[in-house]
UniProtKB/TrEMBL annotation:
This is NADP-dependent oxidoreductase domain-containing protein. Residues 16-163 form the NADP-dependent oxidoreductase domain. The keyword NADP applies. Belongs to the shaker potassium channel beta subunit family. Pfam families: Aldo_ket_red (PF00248). It comes from Polyrhizophydium stewartii.
């Protein structure tokens, strides 16, 4: 397997990753997902990607059970999750400080992990001030719940804005973008 540095960090990720998006009712049982994850891991894939919204959080639970079942050392994995949608209540979606922090904590509980390597803002949130988003993801990093944060389906202008604010505040800007 080939590995590359993620952005301008020292973190090495496999050029292929294993994604955990499986639609409900697809007929893919947990045993099948675990077998696919095992095959990917044995092929050298170290990056496993999921999100709080995939199968209403069940994807994270399945990933966590696989990690435990196979006894994989946490240091051998790069685990990512994404925050934006977790429910229909007014504070259960978006990128408010409240949702980022509560969403990250809930994801860790579902995964059964102390931290994720990467945490993504799953979509941009035009209703939440960018400074709040940047500060909240930095809080998650400072707590040790994630090592890096990034974006998913953000525009170049939004990413630039996040970097500008992070630099102004002496904080960490987004490292990666998942289109």
């Amino acid at each position: 397997m080939e590995y590359r540095f993620l952005g301008c960090s020292g973190l090495q990720v496999s050029v292929l990753s294993f994604g955990g998006w499986v639609p409900k009712g697809s007929g893919h049982g947990e045993d099948v997902v675990h077998e696919c994850m095992r095959t990917a891991y044995e092929a050298g894939i170290n990056c496993f990607d999921t999100a709080e919204t995939y199968m209403d959080g069940e994807s994270e639970r399945i990933f966590g059970r696989a990690i435990k079942k196979f006894g994989w050392e946490r240091k051998s994995l790069v685990v990512s999750t994404k925050i934006y949608w977790s429910g229909s209540g007014p504070n259960e979606f978006g990128l408010s400080r409240k949702h980022i922090i509560e969403g990250a904590k809930a994801s860790l509980e579902r995964l059964g992990l102390e931290y994720v390597d990467l945490i993504f803002a799953h979509r941009p949130d035009d209703l939440t001030p960018m400074e709040e988003v940047v500060r909240a993801f930095n809080w998650v990093i400072e707590k040790g719940w994630a090592f890096y944060w990034g974006t998913s389906e953000w525009s170049a202008e939004q990413i630039t804005d996040a970097h500008r604010i992070a630099e102004k505040l002496g904080l960490i800007g987004p490292l990666m973008e998942q289109p």
